[in-house]
Amino acid sequence: MEKIDLTQLKEGEIGLVMEIQGGYGLHRRLESLGIRVGKKVIKVSSQLMRGPVTVRIDNSEVAMGFGMARKILVETENG
Fold it and tell me: Where are the domains of the chain?
């Protein structure tokens, strides 16, 4: 198991959120999207060249900017 940021996750890969590198505002924003430490996320898609990253959490899909996705560290289950 290795720790990588959300942008490095491959499409269809599952990651467990281990750490969020950001301040209170970022933590609150991600919490409102359902992303917090201990949650499993599945990467749905991402655009080339720093585009938005889409992940599935529980039963919803969430798109976020590349910069925000880089601050979310996940542990891969198959890595």
Answer: 3-76
CATH class of 3-76: mainly beta
Please name the amino acid found at residue 14. Answer: I
Question: What is this structure's pTM?
Answer: 0.91
What pLDDT sits at residue 37? 96
pLDDT value for 10: 92
Q: What are the φ/ψ torsions at residue 45 (nearest 5 degrees)?
A: -165, 165
Which strand (E) or helix (H) includes residue 57? strand 53-57
The whole-angstrom separation of Cα 74 and Cα 79 is: 11
8-state DSSP, 26 = H
| Pair of tokens at residue 44 | 């749905």
State how far the alpha carbon of 35 is from the alpha carbons of 15, 39, 48, 49, in Å: 12, 7, 23, 23
